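At your convenience, could you comment on the folded chain following this short note?
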Amino acid sequence: MTTRIRSAVIWRSGSQMIGQVVMWGSTFLVLRLLTPGDYGLFAMTQVVIGLAQLLNGYSFASSLVQAEQLDTRRAGQVFGMLILMNFGMATVQFLMAPLAADYFRQPALSLMLRVQCLLHLTTPFIVVPQALLSRNIDFRTQARANLAAALSGAIAGPVCALAGLGVWTLVIAPIVMFWTRAILLQALGRWWIRPRFALAGAGAMFGYGGMVLVSDVLWFVQNQADTFIAGRRFDAHMLGLYSEGLFLTQLFINKFVPALNEVAFPAYARMQADRSAVAWSFAKALSIIMVAALPCFIGLAATAEPLVLTVMGPKWVEAVPLVRLLAFAMPFTTLHVLYPPATNALGKPKIAAISSAAGAVVLPVAFGIGVAYGPIGMAAAWVVSMPLLVLLSSSLSLPVLGLSWARLGQAVVPPLAAALAMGAVVTGVDRILPPMAAPLRLAALVPVGVLAYAGFVLLFARDIVRQALAMVRGRGKPATA
């Protein structure tokens, strides 16, 4: 199992890194070609798309991964349910698109949302094979499909932007990527299960999947409440600045952590009979993720101005203070999203649902207060709210995982100390640099940050680095936590 998990992490995270390098090149080129207003319009559509995708049945497909035993009948029932849900969702979205356009006072959203219905039609043909491959901890096949899909989207984006399609670039590129992924998962996965529309005997699936669905819906509320609230108060330009500033600070969380969670969920599910192995695995994974994540967030705060000006362009300069402030909320967000795969895999989806319910109250209230102060108030709402939510989710999750608060601190504090020390060095060097162009300034600060962090992480977190290298080499051994 250790060998299979290590291979899965390498394939999933490796393909994610390669895919993101390709996608980032495309994304930042498109950012320079489009305007904040284009991204503001697109962010409004994502409230609707995000809600629809929560109801796409993925929570029920996750029951295929979590179950200790699986038969083709149950898989066929999930497949049939996903077909009904997603084709129905596409129809509802098509009919209701004008209402969303009226809410945001943006008539252009109606046609955009109707075209985006094409995304839902691919979902059953992505989610079911992905769940079955994940159950077998086969991430090599998924990696091949994901890389090809990323490449197709990375090509489609700049081509559309250069053709002058404006905001439609952001609509078309994901559609190309989703359809490519669906087709390749069918071809490479070599699977076909007859969909079953009779759901008798699927009570366990409904129970587990329903609780995960509740958690996902509440998670959607807490993560899309900002756009839902700000979309009525901000113009497209202001909303675009906020949404893309948030996008930049959440790159690690949205692009790398989900890849690791995809491996973690089936891995924890296969180990659920041995809670000590789950505890050991979670603690080690948390340590390693924080060693990688914390310097990204602190470094982002320290280099926000030259980074934004270099990769996004001068038109995005107003996003600099947003990026700097949001970066300090992201370490808490990272920890918050690492708990659900572990607790869900142990058959405790109620914990994630409770945490999400709290977030669905705390964050909207914070955004409702912060919106009066513009985009910077929305960013401040993240900084105030996320530590409170992490305190709750940790209180609920740690006992189930068999971990103590002290063990949590051992995983987080050493890399945090190294990252903060690195941030102080980078900030100090930045202040003594002579005036220079943003790309040159960034090029000077990045090596300073890398070298400083390397030194501090060896000083504060040498054991974590050593354990990470041992796990990569296949020498890590589970122990009780």
Residues 476-481 have pLDDT under 50 and may be disordered. The chain is about 85% helix and 0% strand. The first helix runs from residue 2 to 33. The CA atoms of residues 34 and 166 lie 6 Å apart.
